[in-house]
Write a structure and sequence with these properties.
The structure holds 2 protein chains of 2 kinds.
Chain A (H helix, E strand, L loop, with lengths): L3 H10 L4 H13 L3 H14 L5 H12 L15 E6 L6 H13 L5 E6 L6 H12 L2 E4 L6 H14 L4 E6 L7 H15 L6 E7 L5 H12 L4 E5 L8 H10 L3 E5 L7 E3 L2 H9 L1
Parallel strand pairs in A: 1-4, 1-5, 2-3, 2-4, 5-6, 6-7
Antiparallel strand pairs in A: 7-8
Helix pairs in contact in A: 2-3, 3-4, 4-11, 5-6, 7-8, 9-10
Chain B lengths: L2 H15 L6 H17 L4 H22 L5 H17 L14 E7 L5 H13 L5 E6 L6 H12 L3 E2 L10 H15 L3 E6 L7 H14 L3 E7 L5 H12 L4 E5 L8 H10 L3 E5 L7 E3 L2 H8 L5 H11 L2 H13 L5 H14 L2 H5 L8 H8 L4 H11 L3 H5 L6 H11 L3 H21 L7 H6 L30 H10 L1
Parallel strand pairs in B: 1-4, 1-5, 2-3, 2-4, 5-6, 6-7
Antiparallel strand pairs in B: 7-8
The chains are: A alpha/beta, B alpha/beta.
């Protein structure tokens, strides 16, 4: 965003005028931070002494963030299993491929599982990615049982000593309880073979306040361990990720920042916050 | 969709209604609450402010005349409703067909907004009206978008023009042009072009969309937008409007619980109408967008018109007509008719979705019941009715204890369930009689509701929207709930 800085320095020179505060509120709202977080920050700006303002706002934003670990810890000698979940069209398949590539370039042996057997050609999409980045992909046929594909994938990962198993699941709207049940089943079936270490919720960076509802319902079906926010670029601020983390305490772990396979990075809270102020 | 928003708005109107006389400060506080509700619904800030200013001005202007009005909150409600309809685009618009076929429709939108799925749905929808659509796979960017469209088209038995494999190979502009030629030769009257999704600021892809548009000169360029989009909606819509230009909007994924503020924002900012909505995973979950219905739905009024239309679609013409005649003639509504309606309802889709369209469906208690609803209830109810003799169906009064026990055995349900169905049926038949003057609501719906759900409570009192909802004092089938309702009103 980088826009906080100019505002806050303005506030620190003089007392903020009502217009300035309105303008700042607008900025926060337009970042999809939500009314709750916005008002919290605005209250702070109104109360806090001007010389300390920047620090105070940074601290407050930091307090929105969870203190849970953000990196995926790979255990030596055993497979680490990552389940990718989310609603339709948020970029799960692309994120799965990006994540695979991220660890592949670190020299890890990665296996992808194409368990989105619902959307037409989603399996092919992941297979195409797999061959581009040189990662093996386990797939079922379209409309086959996703849990069965996952079982095959998990068995293969375990037997052939992969370091990382990444499972792409079908997009599902959180309002469809049958699909949410299917997701819990997928997890249970995988756990028959190997524990699921990470369940990453993929959040579209352009999503509005509904993102919180999505993550909440997903976390009721499967324990989310982290989030990936996608489609973050110059214009998209992805404030919904922050709002969701504030609400649910699920740490944001990765950020998808573009269309290329390498446009993917770990989320660094300190960098993020300092970026807001520069 | 709009559900959480309308839930909140119901609350706001509840507060307003509880005041006999409305003052300026009531309007102020209503506007303040509306502001938070709309922002939570992801309506763009600028749109919220403009909207509320108009609502406030009109409400204040109306205030002096309100003094005589018996139902002041109703007047304010009407003002808000009118403003909503105005923003959402006034009267519903249809696809403009070209004078000389083929009519060309181009789809553009952000990545993941659902363009490819929508292309299939739109083609199927328009095919049902007697058109001969051709789907064109011009998204050569996303891995296997071409395959996805081809698979979709095959399942819909709609021809697809996909000369290029995609995955970065091929020139989408050429594909689009060739598709037009192909359509002309093969006499397709409708061409639907799926294009690559883009991030708002991607110059290259935006240019590509522009080039495709210039090459095929579409009759309709539709901007496809995910109803869950946040404050970015305005920026994105503007970027597409400036970059490509579009004639109408399609909202996707409306079956989620997104409050759908994007719909308001985009319609207001671009001035372009929303033409279609897509609201489910099935390829048939697709319909025209109706601003007035959406407005009344946002305001917690339910969507009776859509419901009635779906009922019409599901019931075959003859039996619907016969029922209607019976209804008008004042004949007794029998369990046989009820069975017919049950079967029609099963065709209409899930109960949860249907009931969501009812007035008051968004108040918390009602919503909870809808959520806990089991679609199998319909099957069970049907089993009970089917276990009755024709005589019993025509005249439920003959149902004595031993008959009921037999029915319970025959349908594999308990006697209590049989009893409760018979009771609910009697109540519904009675309601049919009361409704006769108002007309509209398929009575089977009321009777088909599971235990404790009589008719939905919480219809904003005194509001008689455009829908042909009769003003009814609802009586819940559940004694406890009924008592609560009666105590309230």
């Amino acid at each position: 965003m980088g826009l906080f800085g100019s505002f806050l320095s303005k506030f620190s020179r003089n007392r903020a005028s009502i217009e300035d505060i309105e303008e700042f509120r607008k900025l926060l709202i337009e970042s999809d931070l939500g009314v709750g977080a916005t008002e919290e920050i605005i209250d702070l700006v109104k109360k806090e002494k001007s010389e300390n303002l920047e620090n105070a706002v940074a601290q407050r934003i930091k307090s929105f963030l969870s203190d849970k670990p953000r990196e995926i810890s790979l255990h030596h000698g055993e497979v680490t299993t990552v389940l990718i979940v989310g609603v339709n069209g948020t970029g799960k398949t692309t994120s799965a491929a990006k994540l695979a590539n991220f660890y592949k370039t670190q020299g890890k042996k990665v296996l992808l599982v194409a368990a989105d057997t619902f959307r037409a050609a989603a399996v092919d999409q992941l297979v195409t990615w797999g061959s581009r980045i040189g990662v093996d992909v386990v797939k079922g046929s379209d409309n086959s049982d996703p849990a069965a594909v996952c079982f095959d994938g998990a068995s293969k990962a375990k037997n052939e000593n992969y370091d990382l198993l990444i499972i792409d699941t079908a997009g599902r709207l959180h309002t469809k309880s049958n699909l949410m049940d299917e997701l819990s089943k997928v997890r249970r079936v995988i756990e028959k073979v190997t524990p699921v270490n990470e369940i990453l919720f993929v959040l579209d960076g352009t999503t509005g306040q509904n993102g919180i509802a999505q993550a909440k319902v997903f976390s009721e079906s499967v324990p989310l361990t982290g989030m990936i926010v996608t489609k973050v670029d110059g214009s998209t601020k992805g404030g919904i990720a922050l709002a969701t983390e504030r609400e649910l305490g699920v740490p944001l772990k990765f950020v998808g920042v573009g269309e290329n396979i390498g446009d993917f990075k770990e989320f660094e809270p300190d960098d993020y916050i300092s970026e807001l102020f520069t | 969709m709009f559900e959480s928003l309308s839930g909140k708005l119901s609350g706001i109107f509840g507060t307003l209604r509880s005041k006999g006389r409305i003052t300026e400060s009531d309007i102020d506080s209503t506007v303040q609450e509306l502001r938070t509700a709309l922002l939570d619904a992801d309506v763009a800030l600028s749109v919220v402010d403009a909207f509320l200013e108009r609502v406030k001005d009109k409400s204040l202007a109306a205030l002096p005349n309100l003094k005589q009005s018996t139902n002041q909150s109703q007047e304010i409600y009407n003002i808000i409703n009118q403003e909503l309809v105005a923003i959402l685009g006034g009267a519903a618009r249809r696809i403009r067909f070209a004078k000389n076929p083929p009519t060309v429709i181009m789809l553009a939108g952000l990545q993941g907004s659902g363009k490819t799925t929508l292309a299939g749905k739109l083609a199927a929808f328009l095919k049902a009206d007697g058109n001969t659509p051709l789907l064109v796979a011009a998204d050569l960017q996303r891995p296997n978008a071409v395959t996805q469209l081809t698979v979709l088209a095959d399942s819909l038995k709609i021809p697809v023009f996909a000369p290029e494999p995609g995955n970065g190979v091929g020139d989408p502009v050429k594909v689009a042009k060739d598709a037009l030629k192909f359509a002309n030769e093969k006499l397709y009257n409708l061409v639907i072009i799926d294009t690559a999704g883009r991030l708002g600021l991607d110059e290259e892809l935006m240019q590509q969309a522009k080039d495709i548009k210039a090459a095929v000169n579409p009759d309709e360029t539709l901007f496809v937008v995910d109803s869950m989009i946040g404050q970015d909606a305005v920026r994105t819509a503007n970027a597409f409007q400036d970059g490509v230009g579009f004639d109408g909007v399609v909202l996707t994924k409306l079956d989620g619980d997104a409050k759908g503020g994007a719909a308001l924002s985009i319609a207001e900012v671009t001035g372009k109408p929303i033409l279609f909505v897509s609201n489910g995973e099935k390829l048939s979950d697709f319909d025209y967008f109706y601003p007035d219905r959406m407005a009344s739905r946002i305001l917690g009024m339910g969507d009776i018109q859509t419901l009635a239309e779906q009922a019409k679609k599901a019931m075959d013409g003859a039996s619907a007509k016969r029922l209607e005649e019976k209804f008008i003639a004042g004949e007794e509504f029998t369990l046989e008719d009820f069975l017919e309606q049950l079967q029609a309802m099963k065709k209409m889709g899930s109960m949860t979705k249907l009931l969501g369209m009812l007035p008051g469906a968004n108040n918390a208690a009602m919503k909870k019941q809808i959520d806990s609803l089991d679609d199998k209830e319909l099957v069970r109810t049907q089993a009970i009715v089917q276990s009755m003799t024709p005589e019993e169906r025509r005249n439920p009064k003959v149902l004595n204890g031993s008959r009921r026990a037999r029915i319970a055995k025959g349908s594999g349900r308990s006697v209590t369930e049989v009893n409760s169905l018979v009771d609910r049926f009697a109540a519904a038949a009675k309601m049919m009689k009361q409704m006769r003057s108002g007309g509209g609501m398929p009575a089977g719906l009321a009777a088909g509701l599971p235990k404790g759900m009589g008719m939905p409570a919480g219809l904003p009192s005194g509001i008689s929207g455009k829908a042909t909802t009769p003003k009814k004092k609802s009586r819940s089938g559940n004694p406890a709930k009924r008592a609560a309702e009666e105590g309230r009103s």
